[in-house]
Design goal:
By secondary structure, the chain is of the alpha/beta class. The protein has ten helices and five strands; from the N terminus they run βαβααααβαβαααβα. It folds into two domains: 129 residues, Rossmann fold, CATH 3.40.50.300; 71 residues, no CATH class. It has a five-stranded parallel beta sheet, with helices on both faces.
């Protein structure tokens, strides 16, 4: 599907272990393109998205340091789906373009594109050669997030409810990493996928 390295979209809900999987892929020397990090770069002081955000939402969403006031923007879009759609219409094409630029070129067999909202937005599915979902039961998600940042159960459940359902993510998966067990089990699955992706990338006609 893609020119250049095979593009693997990596996704998973909060507390699923997606970041641990991405780190394991990176440990194999695989390039990991982090779309969240790109979004932060685009909205940091001097970021490429700021002129359009200022024009769309006004100076009130720009913080004193010249970057996006993320707390103010979160409050704005949380309360209004139309405002959220307007924000996404500005950010998503910029994130996608920069992500694809970082994916292209070089002799790498494949690249991991870390996309938290892959199932929610839909647009990335056509940009990836395969989708890898890191999955675990809901109760494990809740326990992990509570242990990590101290959110209440109600807060965590609200975050999970705002994301795509577990079923929706699994429905788009080409590969699934079951992260319901210990970390070494996740590592073993990533290691096996690393070998598989290298083999797929070497095929004369991919997939």
């Amino acid at each position: 599907m893609s020119g250049g390295p095979l593009r693997i979209g990596l996704t998973g809900g909060i507390g699923s272990g997606k970041s641990a999987a991405a780190a394991r892929f990176a440990g194999h020397g695989v390039a990991v393109v982090d779309t969240d990090a790109i979004a932060h770069e685009l909205t940091a002081p001097g970021g490429a998205a700021l002129p359009a955000l200022r024009a769309a939402f006004g100076g009130a969403v720009i913080a004193g340091d010249g970057g996006l006031d993320r707390a103010r923007m979160r409050a704005l879009v949380f309360a209004d789906s139309a405002e959220r759609a307007r924000l996404e219409a500005i950010l998503h094409p910029l994130i996608e373009a920069e992500s694809l630029r970082r994916c292209a070129g070089g002799a790498r067999p494949y690249v991991i594109v870390d996309i938290p909202l892959l199932a929610e937005t839909g647009r990335w599915r056509a940009r990836c050669d395969r989708v890898c979902v890191v999955d675990c039961p809901r109760e494990i998600q809740i326990a992990r997030v509570a242990g990590r940042n101290g959110h209440s159960r109600a807060e965590i459940e609200a975050i999970i409810a705002a994301q795509a359902s577990r079923e929706a993510r699994l429905a788009i998966a080409d590969d699934i990493i079951d992260n319901s067990g210990p970390l070494n089990a996740l590592h073993a699955q990533v290691d096996a996928l690393h070998e598989r992706y290298n083999a797929l990338a070497a095929l004369p006609e991919r997939l």
